[in-house]
Design a protein that fits this description.
By secondary structure, this protein is an alpha+beta fold. The protein contains two helices and four strands, in the order ααββββ. A hairpin with a 2-residue loop joins strand 1 and strand 2. The N terminus is likely disordered. Keywords: Signal.
Length: 94
Amino acid sequence: MLKIASFFVTALFFSASLHAGAACKEHPKNEWLHVLDMQKKIVNEYGFAIKKFQTSGDCYEIYGWGLNEAKTEFVKIEVYFDTKTGEIIKKKED
């Protein structure tokens, strides 16, 4: 029985790590970019279209669309940003 419980705990750990977000630096909340300022930066500076915007741990996170790496077509994206600087921490294209 103990082996089965150990297996499930290990499986949960690996499952959670596979879907983990980005490792953003922790900043005091009063230093975070305001949500509207961050959204403007995402659209105007990075050129992403936002479908969903949320806070994920110490990151801002979006789901939306952006140009692929070759800049030839729009693709679905998931992007994590530093909450203080707005810098891209992690970007995933689908």
